Amino acid sequence: MVKKVAIVGAGPSGILMAHYLLRRGDKYQIEIYERRSDPRLIPFSKARTFPISLSERGMTALQKIPGLVEAVKAISVEMKGAMSHQKNGKVRVLPREKTLTTLDRTNLVIALLNKLTEKVDNHQVNIHFNCQCTQVDFTNKTVSFHKTAEQTNLEESEDFTVNYDLLIAADGARSVVRNHFLNTELFELQQKYIPNDYKSVYIPPSEELKTQLKPGYIHSWRMDDGTTMIMLHQLDGTMSGVVYFPRQKNQVTNLSNPEEVWQFFRQNFSEIGQLMTETEAEEFLARPVSSVLTIRCNRYHQGDSVLLIGDAAHAVSPSMGQGCNAALEDVAIFDKILDEYSDNLALAIKEFTLRRQADAYALVELSDNAFPTSKGLFIQFLLRENVARTLHKLFPQRFPPSMFQMISETAIPYSEILQLNQGWIAKVKRANEKFFANL
C-alpha cells in the first residue's frame, strides 16, 4: 500500500528527503508544502541570506542521489582554506585538507528542486508553494494550510486540510509543526537566541576584489568587542557574507548614515571598506538586524507518524557552518534507519530520535562554544588548530585530526568530537559567558 508523506518545508533537507524517499520505489506518495513562493520564479531578498558551506557530511548525503553533487558544484565555489585578516595587514592562513563547497542557500534549493522535478511526474511528488502550515492534528493525522493569493493564480486565499501517513517537519527553527509538540506529553523544548546578531554584506565584482582578497578562501576579520566579519567569493564574481556583532553594546546598530558605514568598515575591515560601493553602504544601513534562534528538544518524533528534521529539530549557531550539513545528514541517517526497519515508519521515527539526539545536543555545544569571542583566546584557538593539524599529519595513528577538521572534513559523530574536545569547549564556554556578562 502506498503511504502518503507530507513534507512541510521546501528547504534543502525537505527536498532532499523527497529525493531519498523516491529512491525507495513506489512506496510513497509525497506532497511538499512551502510557505514561500517558488524560488525558481520569484527572487528573494538578500537581506537575511548568507552563503552555505557544504562540508563532508552534507556532500556525502548529496552523493546518494545521482547528479546532485554535479548540479551543486556547477553553481558553487570551492574553498581550500580560511584567511584571518589582522588590523596590521598580516594574514593568518588556516588550510583545509578537503575543499569546502560554498553557495547561496536559494541556489542550493533551486538545484535540488530542478533535479527533483526533472526525474519524476506528479503522481509521485507534488510541490505546493505559498502554503503556510497552520494546524496539525496528531490524533487524526491531518495537517492544515493557508494558501495565499499573493503570487498565485488564486483570486483569493484559501484554507485546506490533508491527511498523512508520515508528516515530516522540515520547516526551520520556528517550526509550526514542532510548536504543536508542546501540547503533547513530556515534550521539552529549549529555545535560545545566540548573543550575536548579524547583517549581510555584498561586494560587486571587480579586478581589485580578486587581487585584494584571494579567491578560494573564506576571509574573516575580528574586532576586540567580538564583532566578526566573514566573506566568501561567489561564482558570479561578487563577494558576500555577514557581520556578526554582540546584541549589547555594538557599533553596527548605531550607524546612522552611509558615510558612517564606510568609516566603520574602513577602520575595522579595511579591505572590504575600500571595495564597498555607495549603493551597498546605503543598503547595508537599511537592512534589518537578524537574530539566530537555536533549538534543542528531547525528541524528534511524535507518536508513530511525525518526524522533525534539520533546524526544526536542532537549529544551531552558524559559527561552525554545520546547520545545513547536519540537516542533510539527518536525511541520510533516516534513510539508513528505513533500510534497517524495512520501511516500518513507526519504528523508524522513534529510532531516529534515539540515534540522532546525542549528536544534535553535541552540535549545539560545539557551535556555541568552539570559537572563543575574546581576541586572546581566539589566537590560542588558531595555534591549537595548527598544532593539532601538524601532529595528525606527521603521526596520524597517534594524534586525531584537529577539532575543526573533525567537524568539517570527516563524518565523525558530533558527540565523539565533543568528547575529545571537552576541555577546550568548557574553557571557551566560561570565557564567552564572562565576556558577554561584561558588555
From TrEMBL:
Keywords: FAD, Flavoprotein, Monooxygenase, NADP, Oxidoreductase. Residues 4-332 form the FAD-binding domain. InterPro entries: FAD-bd, FAD/NAD-bd_sf. Its cofactor is FAD. The keyword Lipid biosynthesis does not apply. It comes from the Bacteria. This is FAD-dependent oxidoreductase. It comes from Floridaenema aerugineum BLCC-F46.
